[in-house]
Amino acid sequence: MGGDGGSGASFRRGMLLVLVLVVCVWFLLISQSGAARLSSESRQKLEVQKHLNRLNKPPVKTIESPDGDVIDCVHISHQPAFDHPYLKDHTIQMRPNYHPEGLFDDNKVFAKASKERTNPISQLWHTNGKCPEDTIPIRRTKKDDVLRASSVKRYGRKKHRTIPVPKSADPDLVNESGHQHAIAYIEGDKYYGAKATINVWEPKIQQPNEFSLSQLWILGGSFGQDLNSIEAGWQVSPDLYGDNNTRLFTYWTSDAYQATGCYNLLCSGFIQINSEIAMGASISPISAFRNSQYDISILIWKDPTEGHWWMQFGNDYVLGYWPSFLFSYLAESASMIEWGGEVVNSEPDGQHTSTQMGSGHFPEEGFGKASYFRNIQVVDGSNNLKAPKGIGTFTEQSNCYDVQTGNNGDWGHYFYYGGPGKNPNCP
Fold it and tell me: Which of 33, 276, 315, 363 is the most core-located residue (most Cβ within 10 A)?
């Protein structure tokens, strides 16, 4: 009997020992996973901070914008472009050698009706100050901006396959990318730039990961892996900027959005020379339905001597240039120009987003209601602005977003475009 009691006690001791071991292992595993989580969190924090340090150069002066943006006035020679290894010894070109000769005078007051006169437009941060000479205004990137991106590496970049391919009616391509367009385009020649006056609105965005933009595209190469693109216009992108403001933006890529290029000044590439306009900053004021209409004018052209692609905003602001070495196909000329709107539809199962394009109204509603591009022009080989020949139009789903072209004496070649997205005919 006593022997049994002894074996029972040793069994209990053994079980207790096993239990203690299990608890110890459990604690060890928990602390290890906690440490791993902590180390991955601190790794991410470190990565984000390093990226912010790279992007946010030491300012000469800082301006707080009414919309919450911080605009840093950074010395022109310290801007992000010069992080590029090929630009280490670059001499900044302070003005283009050539400027395209144009068809339309932007200062011309349209005689048609007073409602069609355009109004001056600026950026919101101007109300609180301006940057000194020899500096450029850069919208400061905040920690939250980077954290909203899918990864630090993808911050400030577009997703692959966001370009409208007019000849492709391949529904798989449309559904795969989730991007929808309503554009006018020309192809079949060599183009050395493009211009447009773009009506500015503040479209409503359904989901924070969607956007709505209106821009021009300067394109070279195929629509495969080697596409070269320079883009500029206005956009509403809660993911990129953290709000629903309408903002001026640019973009470039030399490999179809894979590894090169970015929005605005969020990577090295574009060299800014202008101290008054900030890429990515809010545009003010914007057009209102059946009320005042506001336009921005954008011109992009290739300098025939240096080969750089220059950008001008409005009449007065030559913003800067993309050095020609950034590109392969565009180092020579563009083979296609597109103008128009783009939205992201992230709704699953064939449903449609209610994210608006342009004003959110269809083209047939006309002036004061629908959004438009007017005086669209291209730059030819002699550096002259010309009316585009043989304009095509393209939209994936015209019941959701549409485009209609026209031509008259005051507006030259123009088109109305856009739409509400989800509606009874676009379920």
Answer: 363
